[in-house]
Amino acid sequence: MSDHVAGAVLVLNAGSSSLKYQLVHPDTEVVVAEGIAERIGDHDGSITHEQDGEKTTETLELPDHLTAIRRVRELFASGGIDLASAGLSAVGHRVVHGGRTFYHPTLIDDHVIGEIRRISSLAPLHNPANLTGIEAAREMLPDVPSVAVFDTAFFHGLPEAAATYAIDRGVAKLHAIRRYGFHGTSHQYVSEQVPPLLGKEPSEVHQIVLHLGNGASASAIRGGDPIDTSMGMTPLEGLVMGTRSGDIDPGVVLHLHRVVKLDADQIDALLNKNSGLKGLCGENDFRSVTERIERGDEAAKLAYDVYIHRLRRYIGAYMIDLGRVDAITFTAGVGENAAGVRADALAGLENYGIVVDPDRNAERSRTARRISTDDSAVAVLVVPTNEELAIARQAAEVVGERA
Ligand code: ADP
């Protein structure tokens, strides 16, 4: 009944209160099913599941990730797929922080789970949630190999000058404080699409990738190797994001503690959940920010201006880092859809060989495309990211190597 599933990979992305999943064939890119369980841990959880073109949403109590994943398995079963016996090649897990330990996709065993747990001090908001997904999947599908794909991995080889914070070296070393970078799966996937679009070899291409989603990050990549990225020890550094501040004077953090009397958890919540676009205008969804600007809302306009100002600053820095830039690529929800952001991020850079074509930029499309003019020395591209497919491919590769 579920022959068309043999060899597919179940990709899981477990957040603190959500579980995103996709069943995808890594070779053909065919997505068999996908969905999301939300508000795990609350009374009013929900699961939206889409399989063979049919979409269902149900609300139910989801006390934990194991309950959610068991229900997801039942939903698959009612669509004719028994996950345990369908011949899945792997379960691929997104794991946010690999620390200095993990920089390749890694087959998960008890030892690896212990190490991911140990690294959790570096990513207390993310790694424990990822682990609940791993443990739930191992319990439900004990015979399918699980592979962890780390968000930090692509940036493992960052040059020391880019990875090092200018603080006391002893303290930094003892506590593994350095810049790790995140969204690596997306930056790698997107940057690998670029050389063929330019008709060049990967080793020749100098590029900037702008991953602008709810979280946002930029990277500078030379010949396939990242030489800088905007996120640091945690995903809080860098660009202005939906709810995160991005770069901020560390003195502000001290002030919030000493003068405003916020404790560490309150400052954490302020900077991670109530800053960025949301902190500035009350909205973290970019579409709502844009709608409010159109209605003349000044707070939304300022939020937008701060967002663009920071983005341009990183683009400028990375142009200097790279020396020569062949391509600037936009990806993720905002990058793929918000033509205005793309235009404003690169406005007035004709002297640097960057010319966006307004008509190409305005075109709506879901495929990779060039939006710069034919004579723009730097190609400006939009390349849809696909982290699930990238995780599925990497997981299948690890399992294939083992076989
Ligand atoms: P996540 O980081 O959660 O994976 P996404 O990559 O899905 O985020 O991006 C979510 C963001 O993309 C939201 O701010 C959303 O408003 C924005 N977005 C999605 N579609 C559009 C659109 N058509 N125009 C502008 N912004 C959009």
UniProtKB/TrEMBL annotation:
Positions bound to substrate: R94
EC numbers for this chain: 2.7.2.1
Residues bound to ATP: K20, H211, L212, G213, N214, G215, D285, F286, R287, G333, V334, G335, E336, N337
Keyword annotations of the record: ATP-binding, Cytoplasm, Kinase, Magnesium, Metal-binding, Nucleotide-binding, Transferase
Site for Transition state stabilizer, residues: H183, R244
Cofactor section: Mg(2+); Mn(2+)
Catalytic activity: acetate + ATP = acetyl phosphate + ADP
Binding site for Mg(2+): N13, E387
Stored InterPro entries: Ac/propionate_kinase (IPR004372), Aliphatic_acid_kin_short-chain (IPR000890), Aliphatic_acid_kinase_CS (IPR023865), ATPase_NBD (IPR043129)
Gene Ontology biological process terms from the UniProt entry: acetate metabolic process; acetyl-CoA biosynthetic process
Active site: D151
Pathway(s) served: Metabolic intermediate biosynthesis; acetyl-CoA biosynthesis; acetyl-CoA from acetate: step 1/2
PROSITE patterns hit by this protein: ACETATE_KINASE_1, ACETATE_KINASE_2
Database matches in Pfam families: Acetate_kinase (PF00871)
Localization, UniProt: Cytoplasm
GO annotation, cellular component aspect: cytoplasm
Cofactor comment: Mg(2+). Can also accept Mn(2+).
GO molecular function: acetate kinase activity; ATP binding; magnesium ion binding
Function: Catalyzes the formation of acetyl phosphate from acetate and ATP. Can also catalyze the reverse reaction.
Family of this protein: Belongs to the acetokinase family.
Quaternary structure (record): Homodimer.
Protein name, UniProt field: Acetate kinase
Protein's organism: Gordonia polyisoprenivorans (strain DSM 44266 / VH2)
Taxonomic placement: Bacteria, Bacillati, Actinomycetota, Actinomycetes, Mycobacteriales
